[in-house]
Amino acid sequence: MPDAIRITDLRKSFKLGFIPRRKEILKGITFTVAEGEIFGYLGPNGAGKTTTIKAVLGLIFPDAGSVEIFGRSHLSPQAREELGFLPENPYFYDYLTADEFLAFYADLFGLARNVRDSRIASLLKLVGLTPAARLQLRKFSRGMLQRVGLAQALINDPRVVILDEPLGGMDPLGRKEIRDIIVRFKEEGKTVLFTSHILQDIELICDRVAMIVDGRIVSQGKLLDLVSERVLFTEVTLAGVQPEAFAGLGEFLSAQGGRVLIRVFSEADVERLLRLADEHGGRVVSLIPRTETLEDIFVEKVKRT
Amino acid sequence: MKVGAIALNTFKEAKRDRILYLLFFFAAGAIIFSRILAVLTVGDRLKIVKDVGLAAISIFGILMAILMGTGLVYKEIDKKTIYTLLAKPIHRAQFLFGKFLGLALTLFIMTGCMSLIFLGIVFAHSLRFEGRLLIAVLFIFLELLLITAVATLFSSFSTPILSSIFTLSFALIGHLSWGLETLIKKLPSPAARTAARVLYAILPDLENFNFKTEVVYGLPIPPAIYLHATLYGLLYTAFILGLAILVFRRRDFI
Amino acid sequence: MQPLTTGRRGAAPVLLVVFLLAAAAGIMALKVATDHIPRAKVPGSSIIYLPSGKYLKYATFGYSSLAADLIYLWSIQYYSNYEIADRFAYLERIFSIISELDPRYTDPYEVGALIAVAEAQDPELALKILDMGLAKNPEQWVFPFEAGHIAQMTLKDFERAQQYYEKCLTIPGAPAFVSRLRANAMYKRGDLQTAWETWLEIYDSAADEEVRKVASNHLYQVKAAIDIGDLTDAVKAFEARFRRLPTTLDDLTRTGIRGALPKDLDGQDYVYDPATGAVKAPTIPWKR
User: Fold this and answer.
1) Does B224 touch chain C (CB under 8 A)?
2) Is residue A89 domain-resident?
3) ipTM of the complex
4) Using CB atoms within 10 A of its CB, is residue C114 exposed (0-12), middle (13-18) or buried (19+)?
5) Residue of C115, C116, C107 lying closest to C142 (CA atoms)
6) Which of A70, A228, A298, C189 has its CB surrounded by the most CB atoms within 10 Å?
């Protein structure tokens, strides 16, 4: 089964400035996205995420390297039929209604009238915009625009959906809604590639990730593999004890309102602390082990380059 | 049809542009005003009406073509609506051609409306329906098509202001071709003359579409010129659109 | 399918370039062909329509000077085109338009007059144009100068020529030789007395030898004309009395018809031909 997206040694530089100076943006990007998975593409701003995406979509022509969609050249019409795309900060023809907007894109795929209408209806339902079908896009909120953008990306029922910062600028409720929609895509058998720099979202829904820093892939693979289960430290909150009693067992973080927060770095120290608390008549309010998160890896990789 | 979908969408967007209606208003005003102007002249009043009317349709049509055409592609790029469009399985050529057709449709309707008002005023003046005036208008429209193509070409890589200047220059050069012809005769060296002759053949001759004089004075038009002028206009338009496609097809949208 | 390498460009752009070249060739061919189709032209058609004068100035929105230049330029090309048969029909109109738009632009008056005289064979129109020029530009001596020239050479109306030269002389900056032209016109007109006085004045006030010589020649010519006229009258009187021509001029003094015989300016006698009775000056003035 061919990979949904296979990117091999992609390179791109731009000539910028009045006296054109060459700036290398992509310095040899290689990664693959398997069919049916949610793939997160992350990196700091300016690393080249959007440039990679645009190269995949044929908006930019790379200097070297190749992109294949299900084994076919990414510029071939068959490949394009399989793709759906939502750009970052999308702007749409704001005088059209949601219905008209989706109908326009449907016409670009040459969908038959009845197919088009039923698909528009089901897509609006999928993204939760059915009541706004007749509303002009200029009256949509940011979240609604994002959702109608998702609907547009799916108008051709593509096998691969590419989203550039789909969760940007949304409130937590909106972000949850979009995450749920993306998961729904996966349940329908679609492949999703999306970029983000909000790591929690990536952690919550992605199967695999690739990290790009300064035009190079610095890390890629299954999320679970990248993020080890190793416990970095444990944060314990105690009540009814004096902080001095626990010096030496860990890093003292705060003492407020009768509660003491201590960061403990080894398992053995945790056990000792718990026994000590019990002896002094204290109470354990909470005990939170902190495993390595994507953010930790991310910050470390960025610091390294 | 994909081109048709884009054309229709462009048309919908164009007809919302206020500039269109502003220019139309001025053109209609000029045509109607010509009736009053005719009173100032001594002699054949109808000729003033015809001349002003045709001039108004021509000038305001060109302004419409330039002002709207130069924003055509630029707006899509600037507002990034072009990203979702070009990510679809559609050739960039289809996109450009669709934009062009949409604007052509808009201009066709505008020219049609201006002509109706024009013919109405002429009728009010002379109680006659002068079909021949439509010939002049038809060729004005052909000229507008060519100018729209040029505006589309510049719009695909340049800002609206620069595009407008370039397109306007194209229109002006097109009407001053006779000046180059006169110059050729006066150039001293044969090499310069040949170079000038080549330039003369390449540069657009928009006077080929100008039948205002013949129509207003009731002079005969040699039938051969209909075919020639039409072919010239269509071929030049195709050439310009071809250039636009060539420029546009490998453009990076950063 | 093999992956797309960015080096390969595909057949489409080659086709496109071929199409563009073919289209360019087609356009050029069509242009040449279309140029050969004759189209009816109305002489000066672009101009006929212009409302005259005052309104035109308003219509040009402050660019009347530029408009004048452009119309003038156009008119030069237009009048150089000998194929247009009745191109002079609107000559006056066109040049009065230019005058209205930019009355201080002197070239069109001169050239318009030139076209009128040399091409349209209408010297009166030329004078009209030059009069217009002078009216709008009273400090330009060249207009009455040329008008005098046309009046003298083409119309042979020496009185008008003289008036033009006199006008010219009233304008500061008029060259000195205009006074000589004026004197000559007087002479041609037949006003010999004034011509003599004028030439004498020029002789006396001559700045250099050249001018003095010229004045002297003209004085000779005028005196000769006066004297010859006088002598011819005397010959006629002799003939009337004696029914024959005198044999020599001395006959005139002997018979008392004249007192002393006038001599030419150099003191020479006039030459008489007894066969015809004609009196001539002994020298050609310019050969003195």
Assistant:
1) yes
2) yes
3) 0.78
4) middle
5) C107
6) A298
